[in-house]
Amino acid sequence: MEPMPTRDEVNEALREVIDPELRRDIVTLEMVRSIDVHTNGVVDVTVSLTTPGCPIRDHFQTAVDAAIRRLDGVIGVNISFDVLSEDERRTLSQKLGRGSLPEGALAQVANVVCVGSGKGGVGKSSVTANLAAALAAAGKRVGVMDADVWGYSQPRMFGLSGERAKVNASRQIVPLDGAEGVKVVSIGFFIDQDAAVVWRGPMLHKALQQFIEDVEWGELDYLLIDLPPGTGDVSMTLAQLLPEARFLIVTTPQAVAQKVAKRSADMAEKLNLEVSGVIENMSGFTTPAGESFAIFGSGGGQLLADELEVPLLGQVPLTMALREQSDNGLPVVLANPADAAALAVTQIAQRLIELTPAAPVSLPMAAEPAPALTVLPPKPVGMSLPMA
Ligand SMILES: Nc1ncnc2c1ncn2[C@@H]1O[C@H](COP(=O)(O)OP(=O)(O)OP(=O)(O)O)[C@@H](O)[C@H]1O
Ligand SMILES: [Mg+2]
Fold it and tell me: CA nearest 318: which of 117, 120, 113, 121?
């Protein structure tokens, strides 16, 4: 009997099998799962596909078979297929760069934008809700994911307090419709009001992952993510789940806040998220008589933007209307577009549109429906996830 090729020789031979969509060979793409060379002249190979219904499976079948049969001593090839895990897909996607692989339910989302800050109460949630509404008013398809599981506020901002999320036939969470068709998902739609969420670590990770991957987001131009204050667990998790997200930092005008915000910028950098800009909020108050007061100081936003070498996207003044509308559940950009804060946020939305691709990136592969919910966060006391 002829000597058989070694495992490494088979591996080398497989470098000529190119994934036509990703335009790289399957060895480089780490899609060769296993190689078994048997003494009887048969080689078993397992190839991982990016999606279960991968349309180019036949191509791989033929190309892998041909590449291995060319080696001396091989008389038969058995090829089996499996599918890359979410983690592997993510790693691959990261390796290939922006938008190269469908990311489950987010395959049809063009821009993921995290809104964060180093400290609490600077207006992240108000800015997120208004920015979302302004983008929607500009004709964009927009979703808001409330990642502040411990202090969620998007249900209130969109007048959806006390509402419950539904689950569709594919067991995906259906976002609730806020004003201007903004799709909203929040932990608040799953728990009784005032029930405390105690998730940390793996449970938190799983819940956030579900909010991203097991939601019927559909096609969106923007998915805005309202982060909790600080730079903890949630941001870590989201950065892992959303390697392509952009980061907007909200800060107040005083220099002290700027130091705190810098911390979150440092974190964004550590997590490899691109900071797209700074938004200064609570930038002064103008009385009806036209007198201006820099209640929280001035200059902090510009300082931070300069330090980070990113644009200051805008300065949002303090207005009664913004605060009232946050409480009334209709973002001020829609309720009172002439309000000074509304005008500022609308301008910021325009700048964001200029900074980001106009349409969802076209992906090389059709998105698969997200897998059915398999792992659900354990049900903490006082919680009722409808799909649990
Ligand atoms: N430009 C503004 N004018 C008037 N009120 C504002 C403005 N921005 C925020 N507020 C008010 O300040 C409070 C805090 O805002 P918000 O909840 O958006 O901050 P946050 O950064 O999300 O807070 P947390 O860190 O708790 O999540 C709210 O009552 C909100 O209505
Ligand atoms: Mg908030």
Answer: 121
